[in-house]
From TrEMBL:
Domain Ketosynthase family 3 (KS3) residue range list: 1-392
Keywords assigned: Transferase
Protein's recorded name: Beta-ketoacyl-[acyl-carrier-protein] synthase II
Gene source species: Dyella jiangningensis
Gene Ontology biological-process entries: fatty acid biosynthetic process
Length: 395
């Protein structure tokens, strides 16, 4: 494919607001997980909670969209000058020529949970939550489109943990086909009872901070995050990092367990490298999906070990942020882009005794080294897989 420029990007997570706080935390190997203080009933686990979401009120003009997920989206949009850059893009191309493609797995379901907890004697939602717009999967994209004043194609991608990785693929197709000139992509997911207790019911939540790729790992830690990026043709941002390729697959092996040989993940990886016209030995860093669940880590470790040379570095950053679900793709794309920008290979936080499937590619400690090409893996439930390839702009 023809590369696209990532002309701006931002991330907000348990590590802080904006890119600077994330670089600082990754450089110092300082995680953001803390004991669960969120759920409506006791649940002994650790979470990656974003500070300040409760105080991030929406502008009065957008009050109809009020909910915790959209507050996090608004908080995220205002980091790193991203809001201003997005408005500049709208001015440059026109509101109808900028696409909006956002990923989320739960959207504003937290507001729906609250509404059901507060049903009146007649079974009606409380008056303050009788707002149909927030009780729908498209709540996030609808709010951001209104906040940015965008009138182009507006898509919600909800493919579990790969949601906000697949947005890059959808945006590239829209630009390549000439339907738009640029795209705002991203994803937002907030903590809510549905994911905390749902994943716990699947026996996938660890009572301790998650330990990706550790022999003694006990499951995931759930986090929340918001992230956004601008994609446009490289001629408009010649010095910006590039989206070089993407790969997608759906193996549909099992509702919540990856294919035992990682076939779907490998198809997505091969597709991404082929689209980028690269070989595996040209990849400097891989941000792994690495959830710390038993099967995911085993399968992904084997895939990396058999597919990449020892010169490639690989690590999971979920020990820093928790698994941010539908926002994981955009958050970890930001980590891949930061690896290129700062020559920073993050540590695989939480692992003390590596799984036997892990090869010499794994970076257990933070490393400073040149990164020209970085891959980000996102493997969702049901075999919804996506791999992204990013690269440094040509000199």
């Amino acid at each position: 494919m023809q590369p696209l420029a990532v002309s701006a990007y931002t991330a907000t997570s348990a590590l802080g607001h904006g890119l600077e706080s994330h670089v600082a935390a990754l450089s110092a190997t300082r995680g953001g997980l803390r004991p669960n203080d969120f759920s409506s009933a006791p649940l002994a686990c650790w979470i990656g909670r974003v500070e300040g979401v409760e105080d991030a009120a929406l502008p009065a003009a957008h009050a109809v969209w009020e909910c915790r997920n959209n507050r996090l989206a608004w908080l995220g949009l205002r980091q790193d000058g991203f809001l201003e850059r997005a408005l500049d893009i709208r001015q440059r191309y026109g509101a109808a020529r900028v696409a909006l493609v956002l990923g989320t797995s739960t959207a504003s379901i937290g507001a729906t949970e609250e509404a059901y907890r507060r049903l009146d004697d007649d079974g009606h939602m409380p008056p303050d939550l009788r707002r149909p717009l927030i009780h729908a999967p498209h709540s996030l994209a609808g709010f951001v489109a209104e906040a940015l004043g965008l009138e182009g194609p507006c898509l919600t991608v909800s493919t579990a943990c790969s949601s906000s990785a697949k947005v890059f693929a959808s945006a590239e197709r829209l630009i390549r086909l000439g339907l738009v000139d640029a795209a705002v992509v991203g994803g937002v997911d907030t903590l809510c009872d549905s994911v905390l207790f749902g994943f716990n019911a699947l026996e996938l939540v660890s009572p301790d901070p998650c330990r990706p790729f550790d022999q003694a790992r006990r499951g995931i830690s759930i986090g929340e995050a918001a992230g956004f990026a601008l994609l446009e043709r490289t001629g408009m941002a010649p010095h910006a990092p590039r989206l070089l390729g993407y790969g997608e697959s759906s193996d549909a092996h099992h509702m919540s367990t990856p294919h035992p040989e990682g076939l779907g993940a490998e198809l997505a990886l091969r597709d991404a490298l082929a689209r980028a016209n690269l070989h595996a030995d040209q990849v400097d860093y891989i941000n792994l999906h690495g959830t710390a669940s038993l099967k995911n880590d085993e399968v992904e470790a084997a895939l990396v070990t058999r597919s990449f040379p020892t010169t490639t570095r690989a690590s999971s950053t979920k020990g820093f942020t928790g698994h941010t679900l539908g926002a994981a793709g955009i958050l970890e794309a930001a980590f891949a882009l930061q690896a290129i920008e700062h020559g920073l290979v993050p540590a695989n936080l939480g692992c003390t005794t590596p799984d036997a499937a892990c090869g010499p590619q794994f970076a257990w400690e933070v490393e400073q080294r040149s990164v020209d090409v970085a891959v980000s893996n996102s493997f969702g439930f049901g075999g919804n897989n996506a791999c992204l390839v990013f690269g440094r702009a040509p000199a």
